[in-house]
Design a protein that fits this description.
Length: 206
C-alpha cells in the first residue's frame, strides 16, 4: 500500500504543497470586520437579532419608515395636532395621519399580495400608521388595523381568510392579540374596501 505522510491542519490527507507540520495549529481566520449576533451571555453583539422591514418593490431608499422592529422607546397617547378624523362605512370614527391614503393601501395589496404584507402592514411597515420612528402613536392604532383589512381585501382575500392570516400574525407579534377592537377594525377596513365606501374611496372628514 502507498503511504501518504502529508496532512492538512484538520488531519486530512493532502498533497505536499498543502501539508502542515505535525502539531501545527490551523491558521486563524482573517478578520473580516463582520459581527454576528448570538445568544450567549458573553456576546459583545446584540443578543436578539432584529430584522428590517422593507418594501420588496421600492427598497429602503424611498421607504422612510424602515426601522428595526424592536426599537420603540416612546409612547404617544395624545392625538397628534395634524391628525385627521375619518369615518368608516359603519359610522364609527377614527384618527389617521394626514397622509393616510387607503386607496394606496388597497393598490399595494393588489400588487404585492401576501408576500408584501409584512413590509406594508407589518410592524414598521409602510402603512403601520401607529409606529413612526421610535414612537408608538396610540391614537393611530385603529387606522393601522383598518389598513390591514383594506390591504387584505386588495390582495383578494375573503374576510374569513383575512381574519385567519391577520390573527396568526397577531398571535406571534402583537401585544394585544385577540383584542376585539383590533379584529373589529380589520373587518371595518375589509368591509369598506370590498363595498368601496368611505373612507376607502374618499377621505371624508367631519
Amino acid at each position: 500500500m502507498k503511504f501518504n505522510p502529508y496532512h492538512d491542519e484538520q488531519g486530512r490527507f493532502t498533497t505536499a504543497d498543502n501539508a502542515v507540520e505535525p502539531g501545527t495549529r490551523a491558521p486563524s481566520r482573517p478578520n473580516t470586520g463582520v459581527e454576528v449576533a448570538d445568544n450567549s451571555d458573553h456576546s459583545p453583539t446584540m443578543k436578539d437579532a432584529s430584522f428590517l422591514v422593507t418594501s420588496p418593490s421600492s427598497g429602503e431608499s424611498d421607504h422612510p419608515k424602515t426601522k428595526p422592529v424592536n426599537e420603540i422607546t416612546n409612547h404617544g397617547h395624545d392625538v397628534p395636532k395634524d391628525a385627521v378624523l375619518l369615518k368608516a362605512g359603519d359610522g364609527s370614527s377614527f384618527y389617521a395621519p394626514p397622509n393616510a391614503d387607503f386607496n394606496q393601501v388597497y393598490a399595494m395589496g393588489s400588487s404585492e399580495g401576501l408576500l408584501g404584507a409584512e413590509s406594508n402592514i407589518g410592524h414598521f411597515g409602510r402603512f403601520d400608521f401607529q409606529r413612526d420612528g421610535d414612537t408608538f402613536i396610540h391614537p393611530y392604532s385603529d387606522a393601522s388595523n383598518y389598513a390591514v383589512g383594506v390591504y387584505m381585501a386588495g390582495a383578494g382575500y375573503t374576510w374569513n381568510e383575512t381574519y385567519v392570516i391577520a390573527n396568526s400574525f397577531a398571535q406571534t407579534m402583537s401585544s394585544n392579540a385577540g383584542a376585539q377592537a383590533q379584529q373589529a377594525w380589520w373587518q371595518k377596513g375589509w368591509d369598506d374596501a370590498t363595498a368601496r365606501t368611505c373612507p376607502f374611496s374618499v377621505a371624508k372628514l367631519y
